[in-house]
Specification:
Helices cover about 40% and strands about 15% of the residues. The chain is α/β, with parallel strands linked by helices and about 250 residues long. It has one domain (about 5-240): TIM Barrel (Alpha-Beta Barrel), CATH 3.20.20. It has an eight-stranded parallel beta barrel, surrounded by six helices. The longest helix is centred in the middle third of the chain and has 17 residues, at about 105-120. It is globular and about 45 Å long. The model has no long low-confidence stretch (mean pLDDT about 95).
């Protein structure tokens, strides 16, 4: 059986685009999760990402168990801190904030969390996490005390992603942050995608099916949407259809 990462890589090689719904455990309850799962199954959503910059409730395990009991869509943890680990998920994006210069988020917190993460039994996916300026301060930039990559500095993003890949990161995740005023530009996505071979996640500020489609055409492999769907769950079907309409190589 293929690992989840092998599936991500195989889909990239076929130019088959994926759509992921991001769920913040602090912002959902049981009825909301039921609705999201129902819509996601109908739209053939590829992945659920679960996590947030701040998870202050103890709802994560319950949230993931509810998703898993209702569908077979893989659940990937997108943690904002080492405490955001649940054995009920399928995999963990083990994030290293390569766009910043805070050693705690490059390796420090990983040293502390490593024994717990190893014992979780989760599939671990080393991830180069890049925060891109989305037009306003984000929780990530505030908590990490780091500056995002400027939105118009495509070369900095490109070199950062290349460095992350050469350092062994198995995916690159470019994020403008929840509710970003400005999503990541297609030119930056195109530049980064053209120079790396690992799967590329793109999220933050994607509020329309058209933008999701354009990001895929530019080279994003996995589109992640959370905040827009929290406001309008009906976007799930539109965005999934747009992402999946980008032609794959068979």
């Amino acid at each position: 059986m293929k690992t989840l990462y092998q599936t991500l890589q195989a889909r990239k090689e076929r130019h088959q685009k994926s759509f992921a719904v991001l769920i913040d455990p602090d912002k959902v309850n049981a009825p909301v999760i039921d609705e999201l799962v129902e819509r996601a199954v109908a739209a053939k959503v590829d992945y659920f990402l679960v996590g947030g910059s701040l998870v202050i409730s103890d709802n994560m395990d319950v949230c993931i168990q509810q998703i898993k009991s209702a569908c077979d869509i893989p659940v990937i943890l997108f943690p904002g801190s080492p405490s955001q680990v649940s054995k009920y998920a399928d995999a963990l994006l083990y994030l290293s904030l390569i766009s910043g210069r805070n050693p705690e988020l490059l390796i420090g917190q990983h040293v502390i969390s490593a024994p717990f993460v190893k014992a979780s039994g989760l599939e671990i996916i080393p991830t180069g996490y890049m925060v891109i300026d989305g037009g306003e301060p984000t929780s990530v930039s505030y908590i990490s005390t780091t500056s995002p990559i400027p939105a118009d500095k495509d070369d900095i993003a490109l070199c950062t992603a290349m460095a992350g890949e050469m350092l062994g990161k198995r995916v690159i995740y470019m994020d403008a942050g929840s509710g970003a005023k400005r999503p990541i530009t297609e030119s930056m996505i195109e530049r980064v995608s053209a120079h790396i071979e690992v799967p590329l996640f793109v999220g933050g500020g994607i509020t329309s099916a058209e933008k999701a489609y354009r990001n895929c055409k530019a080279g994003a492999d996995i589109i992640v949407v959370g905040n827009a769907i929290e406001k309008e769950p009906g976007l799930i079907s539109e965005m999934a259809a747009a992402v999946h309409s980008v032609r794959a190589v068979v």
